[in-house]
Design a protein that fits this description.
Distance between the termini: 51 Å
Structural class: mainly alpha
Number of helices: 12
Largest sheet: none
Oligomer: single chain
Radius of gyration: 49 Å
Number of strands: 0
Strand content: under 5%
């Protein structure tokens, strides 16, 4: 480009202009060579390596060369030329140093990023392993919790569970024996040949409630006899007789009727209504007595307390959490560790940003120092930067670069 400009000049001026342009005439050719170097690459990996490792240092070198060569034209007009030349030499020293720091910063960034990736992978493995450990150990923890609660005085969970299971089993037996009669009655009432499909589940739920209520009535009778409240005792005895009559008449009688053919075949005795009701009454008393003395007297109070939402059991051993601790507390240590790891990641993220920005900022600061030395005769940055906080705002930089007016000599 400079050669074309020289060719257009007259012959008398051509040598003078060539002599004046000699300090910068070779710089465009160097720029063209650098552009060709970055544009021609054998592979994408080579292109990436050139742009990452050499592009910013090359740009800094071009800025430094242009500023240095242009500064040659200003030397005859400057005062304190020695200080100006020293600043240029120090700027070149800072440029060489920040290029080395740029390469070392990239190396440190790669090493730190690899370490953080390993830390993140370790954190993920710890969280997944902890989750698997807690999920896999949950049955063992529950078993240990139940075992400790069983061995220590407190809520009789075994009796409570046996009571619920027995009531469910008894309701299933009576639902099976009563279903034909109930289905026939419902078919006659609605005038249909088939009963709804929900008849069996509804019948089972009703019978389960009735059997649980039967144990509750027995518990009320025992409590009234224990506290010797005779007025209430007479009432509860009357209620218990009604309960016995209902269950014997509609539940146990159906069960005995289903067993009557087998009894007649084995004993040869045909049972009438009175014998059937008597056998059903004996069956109710026997079943209630055996289940009451085995587990009913221990499991019914927790059942009533649970329904009434009252404290279960006695003081000092009233709850399962008091025996085995809070079963949900297993995730708290893991959550605290996760919070600490998240805080660590935020802190390291800011540090990663600093590692990523400082190498480039070093090169930009060195390039800006060359430009400010050329224009104002002083650098703007003290290189290298130790942190991002040292990179001040533009207004502060311009305030620091403002030139103080010289004092006029007095005449």
């Amino acid at each position: 480009m400079i050669e074309e400009m020289l060719s257009r000049l007259p012959d008398g001026w051509r040598e003078v202009v060539s002599l004046l342009a000699a300090p910068v005439a070779w710089v465009p050719r160097l720029q063209q060579a650098l552009v060709e170097f970055f544009a021609e690459s054998a592979s994408p990996w080579a292109t990436t390596g050139k742009f990452v490792l050499l592009l910013f240092p090359a740009m800094l070198g071009m800025v430094a060369i242009w500023c240095t060569q242009l500064a040659l034209y200003t030397l005859p007009f400057r005062s304190a030329r020695g200080r100006f030349i020293s600043l240029l030499l120090l700027a070149w020293w800072d440029a060489a140093r920040v290029v080395w720091l740029y390469w070392m910063g990239l190396l440190r960034l790669v090493a730190v990023s690899a370490g953080w990736l390993l830390s993140l992978a370790h954190l993920a493995v710890r969280l997944v392993a902890g989750l698997i450990r807690h999920v896999a150990g949950a049955p063992l923890a529950v078993t240990s919790l139940v075992t400790r609660s069983y061995l220590q005085p407190g809520v009789p969970w075994v009796a409570f569970a046996m009571l619920i299971l027995w009531c469910a089993l008894e309701a299933a037996v009576f639902a099976y024996t009563l279903y034909p009669s109930v289905a026939e009655v419902l078919a006659d009432l609605v005038g249909a040949d088939e009963v709804p499909a929900l008849t069996s589940p509804v019948l089972y739920v009703l019978l389960l409630m009735l059997i649980l209520g039967s144990f509750a009535c027995v518990q009320a009778l025992v409590d009234a006899a224990r506290t010797r409240t005779f007025r209430f005792l007479a009432q509860i005895v009357l209620v218990e007789l009604f309960v016995m009559f209902f269950e014997v008449m509609f539940l146990y009688r159906e069960l005995v009727d289903s067993l009557t053919p087998w009894i007649a075949q084995e004993t040869g005795v045909r049972m009438g209504l009175a014998s059937t009701l008597l056998l059903a009454a004996f069956g109710w008393i026997g079943v209630r007595g055996m289940t009451w003395f085995l587990f009913g007297q221990y499991g019914t109070p927790p059942l009533l307390a649970f329904i009434a939402r009252q404290p279960i059991g006695e003081a000092g051993g009233s709850s399962l959490a008091a025996v085995g601790g809070d079963p949900r507390a297993w995730w708290r240590p893991g959550l605290e560790d996760f919070r600490r790891e998240i805080a660590w990641l935020h802190e390291r993220g800011e540090q990663l940003l600093e590692y990523l920005a400082l190498p480039v900022l070093h090169l930009l600061g060195a390039a800006l120092n060359f430009a400010t030395i050329l224009t104002t005769g002083r650098p703007v940055f003290s290189l290298p930067f130790r942190s991002l906080k040292e990179v001040t705002e533009t207004r502060e930089l311009l305030g620091g670069l403002s030139l103080q007016p010289r004092k006029q000599a007095s005449l």
